[in-house]
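Researcher: Going back to the complex we discussed earlier. I've cleaned up the inputs and rechecked each line, so this should be the final set. Can you rerun the prediction on the complete assembly and write out the structure?
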Amino acid sequence: MLTIKKLSIQIENNIILDDLSFSIEDNSITSIIGYSGIGKSTLVKAIAGIHHFSAGAIFYNNELLNNTKVNIGYAFQDYGLYPWYSVKKNIVLPLQIKKIAIDQAFYRSILIQLGIDHLIDRYPSALSGGEKQRVALARAIILKPQILLLDEPFSALDTINRTKARDLFLKIWDEYRPLCIFVTHDIDEALLISHKILILRDNSYIQIDNAVRGKLKYDPEYVNMLHSLQEMIAGSN
Amino acid sequence: MNKKKLIVSTILLLVMWHVASLILNKNILPSPLKVVPHLLSIFNSKLIIHIFYSFSRIIFGILFGIAIGWPMGIIVGYFKKADDYISPIIYFIYPIPKIALLPIFMLLFGLGEFTKIFIIFLIVLFQIIVNIRDCIKDLDPTLYYPLNALGSKDSQIIQHILIPASLPSLFSSVRISLGTSIAILFFSETFGTTYGLGYFIMDSMLRINYVEMYSGIVVLSLLGLFLFILIDIISNKYLKWQ
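Model: Rerun complete. Updated structure for the full complex:
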């Protein structure tokens, strides 16, 4: 379980997040939603150990979270691929950093499921946005991480490819069900994917259970939930 | 460099040279029709040993410059403390024309090979340190995020980010410093040696053998061209991703 206690993040005298506490269970997906600039990505970066925080603590299974000990997979919004490395080298880089031998069967299955097995010798500059996004996803899961962080991974895709990528992600996630945090600005995406939703607002936050996960988009319950989420984000609820 | 264009521009240069020699009509500017056949006739018997010496000096100077300058540029660019202490020293030494330091090195190290290689090394060294340092400092901070999230060590950041990201700057530094290096090489070969293209050209001039002198000048410029092409080939091999 990932537990965040009284977390505050300040960047150059601006308070980005203040006194944030919540916990996320293993084998679940939590979406973080909220307006642009509210601190969604900053929060995820703090969990990954990229951003330092000014107060509070992050625990994983009752121990302070340390990214040298816990494997964290991270798919970045701008992909974060290294232009000088081939697709293959980019994907297996986390294994090299963590000094873990490559699981060839798992590696092959990721490549095939994501449809990038024919791209492994290319450089990122020769890939489309959608291909880069799939490579970034492959790199995030190659470690079979305990914590999987996805920062708007499908934002660069058109509607059709977005739905495809989302279904594919859920299929891959279901195989070993890591604790996953999913940043999105798309409320529909949050409702379709996640078990819990964390709504970040100015000076406050709400964590709710997603009771409509798996329901159809036109189900009355789904529509009600969508409306109440919209109100919560706007801060009127 | 395009092969066809290279041939065309070489022919154009030779024609211009030939016309100039006809207009001037003096021994001081012999026609390429005299120089090129002479060059070919003395290439194996006389020139090759001088080319070997000049080439070795410049290559060793550049390689030592890379070996010291590349890691130093990375360290100064990445580690704030190193930048605070080392950059002021670099700023102090970098603007000094290195040729002005030659008398000091001659007195310190003598007139031998070491001084000649050392002066080329210095020219390349500072160009590389400054360029690599600036390149590292200009890197987008988000480039570090994927490795930071994996809890990677500084050594891994150097291996997977700083070395490959600074490679284009390394090649451009070597290219930029190559012209100055050849000029300095020529100058340093005019004393304390009987080998090298600088010696060969000056010796031919003193013997009033202008055809031979021009042969040396042509070979020196071809050496520069060869080195530029060599750098292009190596950089194309290692910068395929660009």
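Model: Worth noting: Chain A has a mean pLDDT of 89.
Researcher: Good, that matches what I expected from the previous run.
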